[in-house]
Amino acid sequence: MRHICDAIVDRAPAKIVNIDAMASSFDALPPEIVQKCVEFLDFDLVSGDLKAVSKATRGVARRALTRGRWKPFRYVAEQGLAFCTPARPVEDLRHTFDPSDIDPPPPAAATFREAWALDPALVVRAICDWNTDRIGRGSGSWHRFRIMRARGYYQARFLSIVEPSADWLSRVISTLEGPYLIQFESTNNGFGPGKWPFFPFCMLSALVEARDPKISPWEMAPLIGIGLEAWTDPILAARFTHRYFCFHLRAESTRIMAGTWSDRWEDRAKASVFMAELNRLIPPADSDSDSDDHPYYNSDPDY
């Protein structure tokens, strides 16, 4: 079965899929085989272009989204925000979530965790695409809701539901490579608001402050390093690290702490590339003080 589907669907994200050719290939296959093939397609393709080709492919895509593999992802994308929006704005965003607003109904939480277990990076993309613009609009608390939106509060609340484990921060970081690449490419080399202005650092701060408000950026750092070891691209991991440490640590401290992270990585080649890129990004040691004009010290750390 898998080799048939692979012959029709090239899953590499860098490739452009010929929808019309795919539909023609589907015409020659039994419906049950077509349904299985759609399971291997990218979610964006199934939920978008595939539905526009023909009535037949629209039906196949609809079944995949409502009864197949992609069902929990569609639920997160379409219904998740409603369960992550508190009835009232948080009075102090530095404090934990209101306990009464933490958990959605058990069936919803189970679906969230099902999607997270299948493809957490796709789930992160889905929750970052939530339309939160109208939450609280027209109420006297709209300004508070707007702050919550800017800080990625709703996304952080979702992550607190799907990652209740003790190593939650490292596990979340390990899933962010794909979404961070999208965010990085939508900015000026990682600087600026990008596609999702709250992602990743505002969202992570909201999550950390909710789960453990006493933890400092320095205490968070080793946990982030553990999560970054799972990234396949050490250069992108170094750029993430560079942005994280902006305004938190001075240059030499960044080198020392990042070096401590990578010293623990099993893949020594990856660790070497990571440190080489980080050393390229941060200013030299002799500029460790009074570097007000350097972008390392003069950029917004929330992006």
Oligomeric nature of the chains: single chain
Radius of gyration: 21 Å
Give a quick account of the main beta sheet: strands, pairing sense, barrel closure.
none
Helix proportion range:
55-70%
Number of strands: 0
When the domains are counted, the total is 3
Measured by DSSP, the beta-strand proportion falls in under 5%
Helix-strand string: HHHHHHHHHHHHHHHHH
Helix/strand/pairing category: mainly alpha
Q: What average pLDDT do the residues reach? A: 77
Spatial gap, N to C terminus: 43 Å
Indicate the overall shape.
Answer: globular
Number of helices: 17
Question: Unreliable stretches, pLDDT < 50, 5 or more residues?
Answer: 1-15, 286-303
How is this structure best summarized?
With 303 residues, this protein is mostly helical. The protein is built from 17 helices and no strands.
